[in-house]
Fold Pyrophosphatase.
Amino acid sequence: MNPYDSLPTDPLLRILSIMTILRSPQGCPWDREQTHKSLKAKLIEECYELIEAIDSEDMASMKEELGDILLHVLFHAQIAQEEGNFSFLEVLDDLCTKLIRRHPHVFGTESATTTDEVHKHWEKIKKAEKPHRESLFDGIPSLLPPLLKAIKLQSRASKMQLDWTSPEGPLLKMEEELQEIKEAYKEKDLEKIKKEIGDLIFSAINFARLLGIDPEEAMKASLLTFEKRCRFVEKELKDKANPVSPEELDRLWERAKEEYS
């Protein structure tokens, strides 16, 4: 008998049954071999693919990528259930409880008419949920990409009033750090250059944050422009039989900058 013939018609029950079958001795060898750790890299990849679909406003891809991420949630829950830890339904139950608890202005007697008031409720509730956290800086994932971690650290420092009063502060700091990089470069001190470059990037992130600019989105835009310019030059070079001179390459780059400003 084909296992597919006995699957429930309800989509949630059907996908749970499919996961159980795939991980069973009669299922798929690859699916059976997977562990929480073996799936980590692919989960990160799927998240980036979803973000790309969102940015490109491709609804068909977005639906597909949401399904791929849900597959990872189901996969991890299935493995956890097999190991006697928790089930997918327990994950859902905990999520429902958390959403209700964190929205007392909707499901309780609290009042919140603005986003700022909502955030104040959340901070109070999250503090009660994690009483073991002694520092405002606890709970920031250590594996966050450095740019995102910088934003998190700066935002939490701001809650302690450890922040610039205006964007001019980090702007001046950027100029200071750039001068220090120049001095370190003259000294050929690579370790100092490395440190000062980190400080310069950190100050640039601070500057963007205080202006309400998402530094990651700004970086993505710069990378996209750079890639388009490189592709433009690459295409132009394909039409040339002989290697071009550095001067000709500079002219092509200037044309690329005009094309993609």
In short: The domain at 144-213 is CATH 1.10.287.1080 (Helix Hairpins). The radius of gyration is 26 Å.
